[in-house]
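task queued by scheduler; priority normal; single chain, no ligands, no partner chains; default sampling; output format set to C-alpha cells
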Amino acid sequence: MDKKGVDMGFVIPGDVFPVVIQCKGFEVTADELRDGHVEQVAKSVRKFGKSGLKCKRYIILSNRSGRNRVFAKGVESKLGQLVSGGVAIEALLWTLDDLVKALERHLTAGVIDALRRWSDQVDRERSKIFSFDEVVIDDVPAVKRRWRLHVGAAQGQIEADQPIAPSQLIEELLIPTQGRFSLVIGAYGMGKTTLMRNLKLPAGYTRLLVPAANLLHVVYSGGSQTALLEHLLQHTGCLQDLADASGIAIKELQRVGGACLGDAVQSTDLKAVLIIDGLDENRIYSRADGFRRLAGELRRLRIPVIVTTRKEHFFNRYLELQPQEQQVWLSRAIETTVIELTDWSTATCNQMLDRVASLTDSNRRALDPLRVLLDQRRLPLVAGHPLWLAMAIDLALAGDMQLFDNQRALYSEWTQRKFMRDFSAPGRDLPKALSNLAIFVQKLTDVMTAIAARMCSVENGSLGLKAEIDDVTVEAVAREHIPTAERLDPLFAESSLLTPSSIRSTSGMQMRFSHFSFQEFFTARAIEIELISVADSELPVGVGAFLERR
C-alpha cells in the first residue's frame, strides 16, 4: 500500500476509507523542515491521488514536533490538491503531539460514552418501586444554604435557609464552579434519587449517574489526582467493551481512561453532570475521613457535581466535627452548596395525584377516595411526604382502600414495607443474625416497640410521650433483642424509623421517630403486649386511635 501513498488505512464496508495515514519519519534535528521534506510528502500525495482510492480523512503523520512553518505551509498546499480533486474530504498534517491529542480526545469520548451507557443501563435495570414510576414531579420545594468548614474550626458554619423557586432548582444544581459541588440532602423518602434520575438537563449534556454503593470497596491510592475517577471506572466495569474492542489491557485502560476523564472534567468545555447518589450507602465516603477524600477529589472538577445523602446523615456525620477529628482528616477547608428537599405542599401533592389519575380512568376513580381522606386530614403521615404519598397511591390503585379504614393495619403494612425496603438497600451493614427477611422485620418491629416504651412516662394520671431518646439507650434496647457483637447502629440510625434529631456532640446524640404517628403506633403496640402499664391512665388521642381496632 505504500506505493499508493498509504501506510495505514482503516476499513469499513464501502468504497471509501474513513481514515488513511501516511507516516513520515524525518531525521530528528533542531533544524526546521524545508522544501526537500515537502517534496517527500508531495510524492506520497501524488501516489494516493493516482491510486484510485478515496477517503474521508487523509493524514500525513510527521515524527517532528514544533511549528516548522515553511514545511507546514508547503505541505498544506499539497494536501489541498487531494481535497480539490475529490480524493479526500479532509487532508491534514499532524505532528506526534497532534496524534497524542487526537488519541486523548478519542479515548476521552469513548470513556464518557461508556460511563454514560453504564449509567443508563443501571437506571433501566433499577427495580420498579411503584406501579406509576413513570410519573415524576419536577417542581419540588427546596431550600439552599452555604456550608463552610474551615481548618481548626470547632464546627461548620451554615447560612440561613434561602428558598429556591422550583423553576430555579435545576439551574442552581448545574452551576459549574471549580472547587465547589452541590450536596443535596433530604429526609428518608423525600425523592433525592428520583430527582437525580429525572433531572432535566440542557440540550447536549450527559448525565453520569453513579450510585455511591458502587464504590463500596475503594482502596485508597495515596492521593492520586484521578483516584476517584479511576475507582469509578474500575468498579463500574464500564470499560470492558472498550477494552475488548481496542485490545488494551483493562487495568491500563482504566488508568489511562481515568487520566483522560480527569482532564475532561477539569475543563469547562465538557457538557456533563457527575451525580454520586446515596453517599450514606458507601462504607468509605459516608465517614468523615472518606468525605474529606471525596471533597478533595471534587474540588478539582469544573463540571457540575451533585452528591446526595440523607439529611440525618449530613447532620450527624459532616456538619459538626470535633477538633480532634479535624486534626485527623480535615487538611483543607470545605465549602459547598447544601440544597435540602423539604416537605411537599398541598399543591405539590395534588399535582402528583392529578398526574397519576390522568394515566387511566380507573386510576382516577381509584384515587377519588384517597383525595377525600387527604382533604379530611385523616392521613397526616401522607400529607407532605412524597414516599408515603406514593405508597398510599399504590394501595389505592391496588384496591386496598379498606386499609385506610383500619389505621393500625395500615401502619403495620407501611412499617413492614419500610423495613423490607431498608433490608434490600445496597451497602447496609445488617447483622448476620437478621439475614432472614421475616426475622429482620420482626426484630425491627420489636426494637421499635421497646424504644417507644422507653419514651413513655405516666404522670398525674396521663400517659406522656417524650420527643427524644438518647442513642446510648437505643443501642442498649437494640442489643437486648439482637444478641450480637456486630454493629447495630445502622439498624436504628440509618435503616429504621428513628432519625437523629440533633447533630453529634460530646453529650451524645438524641433521636426521635421520623414522624410522630409512628411513635404513637409503636406506643399502642407496647401497650397491647404489656410493655407499658397504663391502667386507667388517660392516653394521647393518637395512641388511642391505634387501640380502637384490635
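post-processing summary
- The longest strand covers residues 16-24.
- The chain has four domains: 2-94, 105-341, 346-405, 420-547.
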